[in-house]
Amino acid sequence: MIQLDQRQLGATGIVVPPLGVGVWSWGDKGFWGYGSTHTRDDITQAYKACLDAGLNFFDTAEIYGGGASERILGECVREDGRSVIIASKFAPLPTRLSAKTLLDALDASLERLGMATIDLYQIHWPYTFLNTNALMDVLAQAVRSGKVRAVGVSNYSAARMRQAHARLARHHIPLASNQVHYSLLYRKPEQNGVLDACRELNVTLIAYSPLEQGLLTGKYRPGNTRVAPVVGPRRFIPAFRSANRRKREPLFQVMAPIAEAHDKTIGQVALNWLISKDPCIVPIPGAKNLRQAQENAGAIGWRLTDEEFNKISKAAVL
Ligand SMILES: NC(=O)c1ccc[n+]([C@@H]2O[C@H](COP(=O)([O-])OP(=O)(O)OC[C@H]3O[C@@H](n4cnc5c(N)ncnc54)[C@H](OP(=O)(O)O)[C@@H]3O)[C@@H](O)[C@H]2O)c1
Question: DSSP per residue over 242-253, as a string?
Answer without folding.
Answer: HHHHHHTHHHHH
